[in-house]
Amino acid sequence: MKDFLSFSNPLIFYDKIEQNLNWQEEFGRKAPLNVEIGFGMGEFLVRTALKNPSNDFVGIETDWERIHKTLKRIKRESTEQKKELKNVRILKIDARIAFLFLFSSQAIDNIFCLFPCPWPKKEHIKYRLFTNDFLSLMNNRLVSKGQIQIVTDSFPFYEWILGEVKNSGFSVKTEKISPKFDTKYERKWQAGGQNEFYEIVLIKEKHIKVEEQKRVNLKAYKINNFNPDNFQFEDKTDAVSVILKDFVFDYKKERGTFLFVVAEDKLTQYFRVLIDKRKDGWQICRADGQNLFPTPGIEMALQLTFEAVEKTAAQK
Prior knowledge:
Order of helices and strands: HEHEHEHEHEHEHEHEEEEEEH
Radius of gyration: 22 Å
Structural class: alpha/beta
Helix content: 25-40%
Number of helices: 9
Largest sheet: 8 strands, mixed
Oligomer: single chain
């Protein structure tokens, strides 16, 4: 990957991300901005960017293998074209977080999502992306008359999305379509005998106001004493929920990690907190290497960890 990045650098790393990126500055021009959610192997993203050099494209994906293959695709196409593909950027991040923190209101012209996971099991419906809240958020980020194109192989998922559209500011167009995107998953369903898919096009007719989410600066806490055997944490379940899922402690290294699930305003993140023995006591801080955004809920989880550790230290 290092060799590739010396050639071109479409991947935006987490530690360089700032809230509400100015995408015109990022691309160095004013141009229509398009976003693909879950670009998979990058077939549609790269092909569309090549065909539309006057447009800019941001791809969102969470899987490193797919991102790596897409980076290789971009390098290959740039080599064949003898010109760098400069109108593509890639984000490794959850789509909900990206739309909350990295795009400002009315910044996007078009959004694409081809063959998203339908989460068909009843107990998994909560993981589906296109809830009414998320559609309203995307509405806020789109320009007037901006569009969302969703294509799925699943009729129940198609019906579910249509049920979520109400009051999200969109008019709706639907159509049964033949295969035309030539992506991995489209080819997979074709190979299984499916030659008809369900397309939803949402057109922004009314602007929906969405409260801006603010990221916070997380601080580190210090405490003199800590006994991991006495540690107890009381889960918080309220408007903001902080639930401890695991606590692992290495007695030799005198270091432990707390794993939390933090849920706030329809956003759920996993958050790891580190407690580490130092010369001047124990430090409690955010663990490195996490792909999350520091929201008020994350800040609360860190503070609650400190308070629980403090109670542990007070025990005899």
